[in-house]
Structure to design on (309 residues):
């Protein structure tokens, strides 16, 4: 028995223009099935309810415990992952940005990812600079070079220029400026994207829930929750929980996967008050449930070697 668990994190599963841009390996249905079969041989795949019991009742976990998690409410989770998980009697835990159920609009994170997948990076930076020049007087923005010198460094998955664009348009700029720039660029490069081919719908989510999958909280708008003030964090959590309860009717406790892995002490206090029992980050490490249960690390599936199975 053990207190350690490998929590695996999935996002996109199949090859697309976006995944090619990121250098993500194609995970076809056959490849995903081989992967899960491999995990079943090498690990003990537990359910989220097993993990909650271990956390709440101070129980040990099985040796080489593993949990499979999926973020962002992507349609391929239903088309590719769910049938295989169901067939192999394995639970997946799916973390949903709840605003998709309410608004049926593409999230800013996916708008930006789509823009990056369909444009030349240097040309994109030039376009962003032009919009910043236009908006600078009204919003008192820094000079373009100042932003670049501050933010243009390689990220975990991205070259410096891509990381610069992501940080600028996801974290650094004022909310309204980020919205203006992303929407203008999206209309130019990606306006033909069909949201119904991109995300899950309510009926698909309910069907997965009714067939043994776990549905968890991924915030309302997929915000970087650590840069919101306390009131904004409370609003985001209350909205997301309202829609989560429409799926989990008898919800007495729940788990959150922080969007971008971002959290702070204010957010942790808020989710504790609302019945959260665990929080998942994106820190690439093996989790130990004897540590702080609100900052449990997860390992992205693409950290595994290509020849793992």
């Amino acid at each position: 028995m053990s207190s350690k668990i490998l929590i695996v994190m999935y996002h996109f599963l199949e090859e697309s223009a976006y995944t090619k841009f990121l250098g993500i390996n194609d995970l076809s249905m056959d490849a995903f099935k081989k992967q899960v079969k491999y995990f079943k041989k090498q690990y003990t795949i537990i359910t989220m309810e097993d993990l909650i019991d271990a956390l709440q009742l101070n129980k040990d976990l099985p040796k080489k415990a593993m949990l499979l998690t999926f973020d962002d409410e992507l349609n391929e989770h239903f088309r590719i992952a769910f049938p295989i998980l169901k067939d192999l009697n394995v639970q997946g835990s799916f973390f949903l940005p709840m605003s998709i159920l309410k608004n049926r609009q593409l999230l800013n994170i996916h708008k930006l990812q789509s823009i990056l997948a369909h444009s030349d990076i240097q040309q994109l930076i030039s376009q962003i600079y032009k919009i910043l020049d236009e908006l600078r007087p009204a919003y008192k923005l820094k000079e373009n070079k100042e932003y670049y010198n501050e933010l243009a460094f390689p990220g975990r998955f991205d070259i410096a220029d891509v990381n610069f664009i992501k940080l600028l348009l996801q974290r650094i700029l004022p909310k309204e400026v980020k919205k203006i720039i992303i929407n203008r660029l999206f209309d130019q490069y990606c306006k033909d994207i069909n949201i119904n081919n991109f995300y899950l719908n309510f009926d698909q989510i309910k069907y997965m829930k009714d067939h043994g999958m776990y549905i968890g909280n991924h915030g309302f708008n997929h915000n970087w929750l650590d840069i919101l003030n306390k009131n904004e964090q409370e609003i985001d959590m209350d909205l997301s929980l309202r829609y989560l309860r429409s799926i989990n009717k008898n919800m007495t406790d729940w788990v959150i996967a922080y969007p971008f892995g971002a959290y702070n002490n204010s957010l942790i206090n808020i989710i504790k008050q609302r019945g959260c029992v665990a929080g998942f980050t994106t820190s690439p490490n093996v989790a130990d449930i004897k540590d702080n249960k609100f900052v449990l690390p997860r390992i992205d599936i693409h950290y595994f070697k290509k020849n793992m199975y």
User: Anything to note?
Assistant: Confidence is low (pLDDT under 50) at residues 305-309. The chain has 13 helices and nine strands. The radius of gyration is 20 Å.
